[in-house]
Amino acid sequence: MQNIKSNTEESSGSPSTPEQEPKPELEPALELTPRPRPVREAAPDISRPQSTIESPIHAADTASTGQSAEIKGRRHRSQSDATQLKRSRDQPHSHSQSLQSQTSSKLGDFLGRFRSNSTATSSTADDTSSGSGSASASVTMSSRPVSRPISRPVSRPLSQQSSRSSNWSSFINHSALESFSQEERNRQEAIFELIKSESVYVKDLTAIVEVYLANLIREVDGQSIEIVFSNIEDILLLHATFVSDLEMRQRDERLYISQIGDLLDKHLSNLDIYRRYCSNQHKSIKVLQTLQRKNYRLSQNLTRLKEDPTSRNLELSTHLLSPMQRITRYPLLIKQILKYTEKNTLEYASIERALDEIEGLLLAVNEDVRVQESHTRLQEISNSLVMGQKIELENTSTSKRLLIKEGELAKSKSNKIIHVVLCDDIILLINVTERTLYKLPIPLCEISVSAHPRREDVLYLDLAYPRGGENIALKTLDRNAWINTINSTKKLYRQ
């Protein structure tokens, strides 16, 4: 501004001086076109001479328009590839070579474009930040003027910066930071934490696919690959798009994110793909352990891949747990953002809707996991019985049977150990030593349970008349819990 005033004063000298250069014709001041996101405008207390002065912020934004359009085009092509890859995965794989071909071509191409997207947007952020470094125009946010650009120059997405810059405020100029209320600072910190952790999560998913899956697919059969990795590629594609949109919003709004509910609502509504992955988790770990135990070369290869920098020195089994851990963390992250968001606004409603969706999904995932683990355990119990005693426990004619509770109890008089298996419709008594059925499966509607009147560790299983009217006395220190569980399960079964 000082340079501008100096030039104006020199041009207003005495008109009689012949050496004075002719006064240049002034062009009208540039008007900044308002955006739907927080408007950047000149501070009211800064006067401008009527000459052609372009805001550095506006200039940087204008320069990045072409780059942004190109980036969005890349992202559109990436999403199209993601859809094609998802369709191709729904088709049965005849052998591991078809899996390898799909992974290396479709997913590899997508990740290549995703990295190109990140590089391009990082360059855009550099241009914008460097352009704003000398700006004297202010940025207006939430109707509060900021006397200088709020962001510092960055060379890559802020969520990928070092741990020394671990929070939002570390990227904000002090004078700009002071203009925000504590409530708004907390909200921006919560949003920044979501973006930062999402970026780390995508790196972990990328390690699973590019380091482990890409190598193991050459030496493990296709069926085992499907069980171990399930639909991890679909999950990676979903979150790569999510974090790309988050970081694009972060750059477009110059770190101050006024709206994030629309992105949460858009992407978190697609997390149903986790139901397949999480319900398969128990089987995935078991198959991986079996492969490592039987294949020494594979075990050595996994140890070598663990040392890859992308793997962060984590074993494959640990990486495979990250999707389950991530999905359970979303409610905490979203609640923190919602806590500092103004109520009775569209933004609050969008975030609240996203929270409801993720909490509903978690309930569905937990139920899927419980059903799958129940199915697997009942299969193991059936297989543990000696030949001729095996029974089909895992299925009924109408639905999957659920395992409610199991444990070892003892006969009251002989102390013979009986393994009791309580399902949602039957109760099973197994001789532990002989690995045989003590009784045929007993429907819950034909049994009642009661406590011994004098002994606190004994319960009675009373069989109805069709079962001979037998009374079985069993000892357990957990007597009351067993009685309560059996009675509550009977009530649910009758319903």
UniProtKB/TrEMBL annotation:
<feature type="compositionally biased region" description="Low complexity">
    <location>
        <begin position="116"/>
        <end position="166"/>
    </location>
</feature>
<keyword id="KW-0963">Cytoplasm</keyword>
<dbReference type="InterPro" id="IPR035899">
    <property type="entry name" value="DBL_dom_sf"/>
</dbReference>
<dbReference type="InterPro" id="IPR051480">
    <property type="entry name" value="Endocytic_GEF_Adapter"/>
</dbReference>
<dbReference type="Pfam" id="PF00621">
    <property type="entry name" value="RhoGEF"/>
</dbReference>
<protein>
    <recommendedName>
        <fullName>DH domain-containing protein</fullName>
    </recommendedName>
</protein>
<feature type="domain" description="DH">
    <location>
        <begin position="186"/>
        <end position="368"/>
    </location>
</feature>
<feature type="compositionally biased region" description="Low complexity">
    <location>
        <begin position="9"/>
        <end position="19"/>
    </location>
</feature>
<dbReference type="GO" id="GO:0005085">
    <property type="term" value="F:guanyl-nucleotide exchange factor activity"/>
</dbReference>
<dbReference type="GO" id="GO:0005737">
    <property type="term" value="C:cytoplasm"/>
</dbReference>
<feature type="region of interest" description="Disordered">
    <location>
        <begin position="1"/>
        <end position="166"/>
    </location>
</feature>
<feature type="compositionally biased region" description="Low complexity">
    <location>
        <begin position="94"/>
        <end position="105"/>
    </location>
</feature>
<dbReference type="InterPro" id="IPR000219">
    <property type="entry name" value="DH_dom"/>
</dbReference>
<dbReference type="GO" id="GO:0035025">
    <property type="term" value="P:positive regulation of Rho protein signal transduction"/>
</dbReference>
<dbReference type="InterPro" id="IPR011993">
    <property type="entry name" value="PH-like_dom_sf"/>
</dbReference>
